[in-house]
Structure formats: C-alpha cells, structure tokens
Specification:
11 helices
C-alpha cells in the first residue's frame, strides 16, 4: 500500500468509527426512551388526575341540573315555567360554546395553566351564585358562568395534559381525563338522589360544585406550565426543568432532546405562519 493509499484510508477509518459511535449513541437513546415508555412517572399521573378534576366539574355541572330543576319548585319566587327551565338548562351550553374559541386564544397568550385556574374561579363563583340566588335571572347568570368555565376547561385541559405527557402515553392520559366527565355525571346523580328530599336541597346540589373547583385551584398552583408554552414565552430553562420531572430515567438527556424537538417545531410553525401571512397580504393586493 502506497503513502497516498494510507492517507486516504485513515480518514475513511475515522469516518467509519464516527458513524459507529453515532449509531451506538442513537441506540442508547432508543434504549433510554424504551425504558421510559414502560409507565408514566408519578408526577405525570398526579398531574393528569389534578387536571382531570375539570372533567369532574364538567360532568357534575351538566348532570346536576336535571335533579335541580325537579327540586326547585317555588324557591325562585314562582314555579318554574317551561321557558324558565329551558333558559336555565341551555345557558350553560350556549356560554360553553362561546367560551371555547376565546379559551384557545387566552391559552396561547396567558398559558394553559392560567386558563384552567381562571375556569376554576368561574366554576366557584357560578356554583355559589346558583346556591344563593333567589330569582330565575340569577340562576341563569350562575349557569352562564359555569358554562364559560366548562367551555374553557374542556378545551384547555386536554391540551395541558398532552403537552406535558410523554408521547407514548399521550393518548391514554387524555382519554383518561375525558372519562372524568362521566364520573362527574355519576356523582351529580348520586348527590341529586341524596339531597332531593331535603328542604332547599337543590341549593346544596349546585353549591357543592364549588368544592372540586377550589381543590383543583389549590393543587394546580404547585403544577408547572407546559414546556411548549414556556419555550414560546422565552423561558427555556424553566421548560428544561419541567421536562426533567416528566421523564424518570436519564432525565437530563431526554429533556434536552425533547426540548430541541419543541424548539424546532416552534421555529417551523413560526416560519409557516409568516409564509401564510405573506400569501394573505399578496391576496389582498
């Protein structure tokens, strides 16, 4: 072998060694990811159940109204007419529909966690307002406040859970949060059965809706914002710390990889938005 052949061969060997090292590193990353895919961390389970309280509130507030209307009788100054019952019932759905688009915009501006906290405040005020009101219009107002909370929470809670969950468990955890809605409806029917025969029992039915909201508000204060929103807000170091809590094994390495993927995804999203804006401007010209 000539000197020229040796000169060419050495870089080739180095390139092969580098490629082998890269493959080994990639394999280690896959092993680590597989190890982390066996089960969500305790942190993620706790986060899912705390955020899922919004589902219980959704189910409870939409389910309890059936027992409430039967028990009100003349407590709101006069027996309820068909129109009164229709307005009380439909106001929740109407304001939930109106709140959903606004909740999406607020979640991008204020953060997912803050929107859920705001929903808890509305849940609490709406429940207590219904419990103390003495008029049909007051009942409609209380149900409307609950509707705003339902619309906001139902949109943002699945987003909050999905952005914090490892990709391997995202679908399962979001589905679990939806199951809380059915659980809330069951609790509402049980409460209606237990309180229907008590004097002014319907006030307890609607007022009890404030309890889960207050509990969730207190627990949610110790939970973090989602890494994606933190990165978009320029809080990369905070996002990194959150990701280290999400992943159990080799948390630092996986947190850096996921953080890099989030940053790349956001950059691509912003570039796409700029192109769409330019295309829209050209269309107007």
């Amino acid at each position: 072998m000539t000197g020229d052949d040796n000169a060419v061969g050495v870089p080739l060997i180095r390139d092969q060694e580098c490629s082998r090292d890269s493959l080994e590193d990639h394999h280690k990353d896959l092993v680590v990811e597989a190890r982390n895919s066996t089960s969500p961390s305790a942190f993620i389970w706790a986060l899912t159940f705390i955020a899922g309280i919004s589902g219980i509130l959704f189910g409870y507030d939409t389910g309890v109204i059936s027992s409430t209307l039967v028990s009100i009788r003349s407590d709101l100054s006069h027996p309820l007419s068909t129109l009164d019952k229709s307005l009380i019932t439909s106001s929740t759905s109407l304001f939930a529909l109106l709140a959903s688009p606004a909740a999406g915009l607020l979640a991008d501006r204020l953060g997912r966690k803050n929107v859920i906290l705001l929903a808890d405040v509305l849940f609490t005020i709406g429940a207590l307002w219904q419990a103390y009101t003495k008029s049909v219009s007051g009942m409609i107002l209380g149900r409307s406040l609950v509707g705003l909370a339902v619309g906001g929470a139902s949109l943002v809670v699945p987003l909050y859970i999905s952005e914090l969950s490892p990709s391997a468990f995202r679908g399962m955890l979001v589905t679990l949060s939806v199951l809380f809605i059915t659980g809330g409806q069951v609790v509402a029917y049980v409460c209606g059965w237990l309180l229907a025969q008590r004097e002014h029992g319907w006030r307890w039915m609607v007022g009890l809706g404030a309890v889960p909201a207050i509990v969730q508000f207190a627990l949610l204060l110790v939970l973090p914002e989602t890494p994606r929103w933190l990165v978009k807000a320029g809080k990369t170091d905070t996002a990194r710390e959150v990701l280290r809590k999400v992943y159990v094994t080799d948390a630092n390495a996986i947190a850096e990889q996921v953080l890099h993927d989030i940053q790349k995804d956001i950059q691509e999203e912003e570039a796409t938005n700029k192109l769409n804006d330019r295309a829209s401007l050209r269309g107007w010209q």
